[in-house]
Amino acid sequence: MTEEKAKKEIEALTREINGHIRHYYLEDAPVISDYDYDMMMRRLAELEARFPALRLPDSPTGRVGGAAAEGFAAFRHEVPLLSLQDAFSYDELIAFDERVKKLCPHASYAVELKIDGLSVALTYEKGVFVRGATRGDGQVGEDVTRNLATVGSIPRRLKEPVDIVVRGEVYMPRSSFEKLNRQYEQAGKKTFANPRNAAAGSLRQLDSSVTAERGLDIFVFNIQQMKGVMPESHAESLDYLKSLGFKVSPFYRRYADITEAFAEVERFHGMREELDFDIDGAVLKVDRFADRALLGETAKAPRWAIAYKYPPEQKETLLKNITVQIGRTGVLTPNAELEPVRLAGTTVSRATLHNRKYIRDLDIRVGDTVVVQKAGDIIPEVVRVVAEKRPADSRPYEMPAVCPVCGGGLVPDESGIALRCGNAECPAKIRRRLEHFCSKGAMDIEGLGPAILEQLLESGLIREIDDLYSLKKEQLSELEGLGEKSAANLLAAVESSKDAPLDRVLYALGIRNIGARAAELLAGHFGSIDAVMNAGAEEIAALEDFGDITAESVVSFFAEEKNRSLVSRLRRAGLQMAYQKKKTSDLLDGKTFVLSGGLDRMTRDEATAAILRLGGRVSGSVSGKTSYLILGDKPGSKLKKAQELGVPVIEEEEFLKMIEAEGEK
């Protein structure tokens, strides 16, 4: 591979993985399977090892995913909550065993379940629970003490008055998950995709009484810190934690032989269906703490532990029919109608077939027995056909020749793979555009879901997006399921959406290839919707994370008079068309900072926020473009790198004086 090809692939993988990290840790909404994510991470790590100079400052390979979400105070972990290195084959476990046995020839392994939940740290002082926080990025998490206090299996007071910090995995039992989804179905709400997402969402509720109703549980699996004499091994530590009153990992056995340890891993795999909670693998840990000290750890993961990851759960079922859905940009997406099957925590009766090429490549036909799995444990998809069970009279599937909703002509997209309805007035496209405009990530108009929008369209009360801002209370109160109070609440939500910032307006317009992050970059760079509309493709393509295709999508969208007219109508309705920049000063404009080690008077997140607010930039690694390295406790290799490159190094006090100068103006 040439360096140029490696550079492009590293940039693409870094961008894509960081996007998935946001989906998984901050939005609790992964869009790919854990396996696919792990393979992408592995590929990126391989490329960075071969071309270390090409590693980007925001590379995800050197950190634990996640960050503190808004709404909770940041909490700094004194002992980092590290991630684990992953294995996907027996050979990789053998290689791990060989590395361990070189330094610790008599090492044995504790083998336990890898619970699929949310990792937290619990702090006890004199045996009393005082604080609980999520893992976050391993260094800084979210203080969710009030919510964790509602979890019944977390003891408020231990059986001994010890000072101890423990780590555990909060999860939602399948029985609680099913009960919660039944409640949501009865209330007409969107159900959760899997127990892990439900647990994460429940733990991040701003109202702790909501968390208390969700039936969360926990397994504690590690002592992070402890005053007094520590146990000598992991198994002994779990016995001790159990004696204190903690609910610990349900199975933990010790094995000196890696083959026997792997047999236990396989036994766990076979019992997945029997458990009342989800697991996504098994964890092997060197048992004796003295051996762990010899083996050490990297910045991201200990060298004395490894997680064996199971492949996504798959099930066979019957494909009864293939239907086609029209998206907001007119793309036809074929979907499989399935014989209902239980898969990864929910009953699945539909699955995506992606596009016509996917159907053709797998030769998927109505009447086939197919294997389904959930991409990212979220989206059901057909992964293969069980050819030997195919009916003798089956026929290859053909996509529609015209749009199944409006009868309009179909045109291939740029790739030639997907088909798109060419009719701008297609009712399905209009409905999808409206759904996207009102969605949470866009204008966030609470209450305007698909059912209400369908009624508004069928009654003729709306035809285009801007019609939403002309609705009257008396019109809404006549709709089925909407009384006078609900109509008033809906109108208030519509009115409130006028205050949404420009980046969300741009995203809500539904420009092809423009997601929330791209919309934010456009708004921040150009400052107004008029500047975006009049920008050339070359200028847009030069933005970070943009390219020719994305730029052309923006230019093409605003080249159409109907879209420019829509913007004018939305402006008259009162929507924000100018961007309010988040920074409050230009004091640090053009300066790039790198934070190294822990700070005394502020958290790293607080320091980052201050830099951004004053117009500066924060990078994860030192380079020739770094303006300052802020020196904290235990700075590590960043200090050496800064000294080699001649980058100015400043102490925390000097940094505080720098930013306090702005407050004196």
How would you describe the overall organization of this protein?
This protein is α+β, with helices and mostly antiparallel strands and 665 residues long. It has 5 domains: 3-62, Orthogonal Bundle (Helix Hairpins); 74-309, 2-Layer Sandwich (D-amino Acid Aminotransferase, Chain A, domain 1), CATH 3.30.470.30; 315-420, Nucleic acid-binding proteins (OB fold (Dihydrolipoamide Acetyltransferase, E2P), Beta Barrel); 427-573, Orthogonal Bundle (DNA polymerase, domain 1); 592-663, BRCT domain (Rossmann fold). Helix content is 37%, strand content 20%. The strands form 6 sheets. Strands 2-11-10-3-9 form a 5-stranded mixed beta sheet. Helix 1 packs antiparallel against helix 2 (34-50). The protein is globular.
Shape: globular
Beta-strand portion reads 15-25%
Number of domains: 5
Radius of gyration: 27 Å
Approximately how much helix is present in the residues?
25-40%
- Return the average pLDDT rounded to an integer: 86
Tell me the CATH superfamily of the largest domain: DNA ligase/mRNA capping enzyme
Write the layout of secondary structure elements.
Layout: H1 3-26, H2 34-50, E1 74-76, E2 85-87, H3 90-103, E3 109-115, E4 118-125, E5 128-134, E6 140-142, H4 145-148, E7 164-171, H5 174-186, H6 195-203, H7 208-212, E8 217-226, H8 234-244, E9 252-255, H9 258-270, E10 279-286, H10 289-295, E11 305-309, E12 315-326, E13 332-343, E14 346-352, H11 356-362, E15 369-375, E16 379-385, E17 410-412, E18 419-421, H12 427-438, H13 450-458, H14 473-476, H15 484-496, H16 502-508, H17 516-526, H18 529-533, H19 537-541, H20 548-559, H21 561-573, E19 592-596, H22 604-613, E20 617-619, E21 628-631, H23 637-645, E22 649-651, H24 652-663
Parallel strand pairs: 2-11, 19-20, 19-21, 21-22
Antiparallel strand pairs: 1-6, 3-9, 3-10, 4-5, 4-7, 7-8, 10-11, 12-13, 12-15, 13-14, 15-16, 17-18
Helix pairs in contact: 1-2, 16-17
